[in-house]
Amino acid sequence: MKTFKAKNIVAMVGLAIAATTFSVNAEESAPDTQPQPQLQQTVGDLINTLVKQGTISVEQGELLTTQMQPQLVAPHELPAPKSPDTLRIPYVPESIRNSIRDEVRLGLREEVVNDIKGQAQQERWGIPGVLPKWVENFKMKGDMRLRFQSDIYANGNPAQAYVNFSELNRSGGFGKSDNPFLNTTVNRNRERARLRLGVDAKVNDQTLVGMRLATGSSGNPVSTNQTLGNYGRPYSVQLDQAYMRYNIYDFDGYNRMTLWGGRMPNPWVSTDLVWDSDLNFEGVAGTYRIRLGEGDGLADLANLNKTLFLTMGAFPLQEVALSSRDKWLLGAQFGSEWMSESQSSFTVALAYYDFINMVGQRNALDSKLNDFTAAPFLQKGNTLYDIRNDTDSATDLWALASDYKEANLTMRADLANFSPVHVVLTADYVKNIGFKEGAVSALTGYSEKARTKGYQLQLAVGWPQITKLDDWRVSVAYKHLERDAVVDAFTDSDFHLGGTDAEGWIMGVEYGLRDNTALNFRWLSADAIDGPPLGIDVLQLDVNVKF
In sequence order, what DSSP letters do the residues of 25-41 get, joined into one string? Predict the structure, then answer.
């Protein structure tokens, strides 16, 4: 196509040059003389060429002949025509020359613009290509939350009824701690902030490296909140995530397997009944997926929206030098996800979490050899015992008395029949099958009854994600979590201000203030199940911004 246009343009340029020369020669000739026959022949040949190539029609050629009739020489003075369709035009009017010039200009402009566009695309001209290509492989993301939180304690709570075991283990015992008991009576109001900034680096089409910085304390794995009012001191910032992710795709582009390594986001289908939403996992994990119905052209198309998955992970919790008793979490989860024609989605997942070497080991008399088996972080609720074998209460060191082997069933139904409003039903159940009454009683010296079950039911109505102005969602949930159902260090840190042995209600309202800006209100009301009376209401008002 380009060659054909180029030939036409060349012929038209030649015609314009010849016509101009012919016109000049005609003006320089005497009034009673005719222009040179040779020049007439040249102009005529150019017009004939354009007629044959289809640039102008035969009718247009005849029209030109008629318009130029006053300038034509006698027929007997011109060479005989080469063929019946040959037109002899000795003169081209100025209007025709202008028209040809404009067509030539437009044709050249189109060719030049297309060439420039092609070169610009190939060489990545313009704003998208100003930065080096490797910069495009990095994607930044983040969020910030401002929170007002009010902790309101019930009037019937006894004072000094709950020991701050985590603080005691850090400080070295009752006689060395400034805060041996948890607050149970004095209401508290706090302004808090959380900032998280992450970077995803695309190594290739299958490999990604992710990292995230977050405010918070290195001693608390389940909270990245920073309480305001530190007399102007700067905030602590931690490396919250640092991981590699590798995806394996099949020939259809389906993500068959995902492998994780490092400090990664939660790989499990779960709720905050078992794992706090701020908790990250250190170790390795992988998810293998099977899409039902693939490869069978006669299968129901709905099967393509059904997936079976298996997730497995191994996570070191505490590495101990010169010991083979490192603490580990081993987990496996089998489940299914599917979607209906109405775009409603359903998820069922059954998980088993096995905590290795979590039970504390009592020291020999006046020894500290087994101190490492004490829990480095505790919230409250789990059954504990003192592993120091001495009579000095100032040096008590507390460790878990039970094994934790948690069986967890999670079910979720996201009903999109009223889209864009979704109705989401979530049910979560957990049982610690590792608790042995006799073994625990032998360590604590008391008759311990198994309190090892937990469940949570939640209903949420509204937009699935709050991303724009006027998006909204309301939710209500009931939670019941017994003393040794889960490891209290890793469960929700807001409900009952963290830990286990609590039951109660959670209500929430979310509303979109602007794009990527939301207002969130939550009320969490919980009471102790078996321990001394402890009622805590937590009110939270958040402004969340994502970028």
Answer: HHHHS-TTSPPPHHHHH
Tokens of 356: 């290795």
Cis peptide before 420 (omega within 30 of 0): yes
pLDDT in the model for residue 443: 95
Question: How far is the C-alpha of 257 from the C-alpha of 290, rounded, in Å?
Answer: 9
Mapping DSSP onto H, E and C, the string for 105-139 reads HHHHHHHHHHHHHHHHHHHCCCHHHCCCHHHHHEE
Q: Decide: 502 and 495 in contact? Cβ < 8 Å.
A: yes
8 A C-beta contact, residue 146 and residue 543: yes
Give the integer Cα–Cα distance in Å for 325 and 194: 35
Closest CA to 328 of 292, 266, 283, 361: 283
Give me 170's structure tokens: 């850090």
Q: Write down the mean pLDDT value for the chain.
A: 85
Q: How far is CA 449 from CA 128, 142, 358, 380, 483, in A?
A: 65, 45, 19, 18, 10
Contacts of 272 (CB under 8 A, 6+ apart): 456, 491, 492, 495
Residue with tokens 């030649």: 14
Q: How many CA atoms lie within 13 A of 31 on its CB side?
A: 0
pLDDT at 210 over 60: yes
354-365 burial code (b ≥16 CB/10 A, e <16): bbbbbbbeebee
CA 440, CA 442: separation in Å to the nearest integer?
Answer: 5
pLDDT at 300 exceeding the cut of 60: no
Per-residue pLDDT band at 393 (split at 50, 70, 90): confident
pLDDT in tens, 362-381: 999 888 899 999 999 999 99
Q: How sure is the predictor about 331, in pLDDT bands with cuts at 50, 70 and 90?
A: very high
How does DSSP classify residue 359? B
Q: What angle do CA 543, 546, 547 make, to 5 degrees?
A: 145
> Who has greater pLDDT, 132 or 381?
381
CB 503 within 8 A of CB 524: no
Mean pLDDT of the region 186-209: 97
Secondary structure (DSSP) of 169-194: HHHTSGGG-S--B---SS-EEEEEEE
Global pTM? Answer: 0.76
**What's the Rg (C-alpha) of the chain?**
41
Q: Which of 216-220, 297-301, 492-496 has the lowest mean pLDDT?
A: 297-301
Q: How far is CA 141 from CA 138, 144, 197, in A?
A: 10, 11, 6
How many angstroms separate the CA atoms of 410 and 429, rounded? 7
In sequence order, the 6+-apart residues with CB closer than 8 A to the CB of 478 are 456, 457, 458, 503, 504, 505, 506
Q: In this structure, what token pair is assigned to residue 3?
A: 């060659």
